[in-house]
Amino acid sequence: MEYKAKYITGDIKLSCYEDKFFKSDILFDQHILVWFISGETRIVQADATYLFKKGDIFLIPRNQLATILNYPTDSQPHKTVVMHLTTERLRAYYAKMNVKPEVVVSPRILCYNNHPLLESCLSSLVPYFDMKDLPEDIAALKITEAITILRTIDKKIDNVLANFEEPGKIDLASYMEKNFMFNLPLERFGYLTGRSLTTFKRDFKRIFNATPQRWLTLKRLELAHYQFVEKNKKPIDVCYESGFENLSHFSYAFKKHFGYTPTELLAQKENK
Known about the structure:
Elements: E1 3-9, E2 12-17, E3 22-28, E4 31-38, E5 40-44, E6 49-53, E7 57-60, E8 64-71, E9 78-85, H1 87-94, E10 110-111, H2 116-123, H3 136-153, H4 158-161, H5 172-179, H6 186-192, H7 197-208, H8 212-231, H9 235-241, H10 247-258, H11 262-271
Antiparallel strand pairs: 1-2, 2-9, 3-8, 4-7, 4-9, 5-6, 5-8, 7-10
Helix pairs in contact: 2-3, 6-7, 8-10
C-alpha cells in the first residue's frame, strides 16, 4: 500500500492512499474533521455504519472506536483533508466562554455534507500543502475558523467539543458486548472503561470467566457466523467487520471453531 501525507502542521494533513484498499481499527484520541476529495470510506461502529465519498464532510468525536475501510474509486486515490481538533486547542478556544456542555453518551459521527462554509474553509487548505515554512499562526487561524463554523451551523456541537472529561469507570460487561469487534490492545479497552490494564483483566475474568483474548475471539467468530447466515455477506467483508486482520487467519480460526470454512458454509446455504 502506498500512503502519502502532506502536513501543514501536525494537526492538519492531506492524506492519500493510492492502493486498492486499507483497513484499520482505530480509537480516536482527538476530534477529527474530515473533508473528502476523492475515494470512499466505510466507517463501522458498534451501532452504525457510514459510507463517505467525494464532497462529504464529517466530524468523528474523540474516544470513539471504529473500523476504517478506505477504497479508491473510479481510478482515483482515497484523498482527504484531515484536521485534528485537539483537547489543548479546544480548551484555549473555550477558555473565555461560559459554556456548560450537556453530557453526551457515546456521541455519533456528525455529518455536514457539502456545507458551503465548511467546504470553503477546508478546501482553502489545499494550496498550503505545497508551501514550505508556512507560519504556525496561519494553521491555527484555519482551525479556529473551522471550530467557529461548526458552532455556527450546529447549535449542539458544544456538547461534544467543550466536553473535556476522560472516560470514567463504566459497566465492563455491556461495553465489551457492544464493542468486541474492534481489534484494539487491551490497554485501550481498559482506558475506555476507566480501568488500568491489571484491573481490566481482573474484572474481565470475574465477569466473563474467561481471558479477554479467548472471549474476544469467540465473540468475533460468533458474529462472523451470524453475518454469513443472516446477512449473506462476503468472507472478506465479514472478516474485517468482525475484528480479524486478514482473511487467511480468519478462515483458519473459523474452521477450527466451527468445523468448516466460510466458503463451505456459504456453499451449504446456496444448496439448500
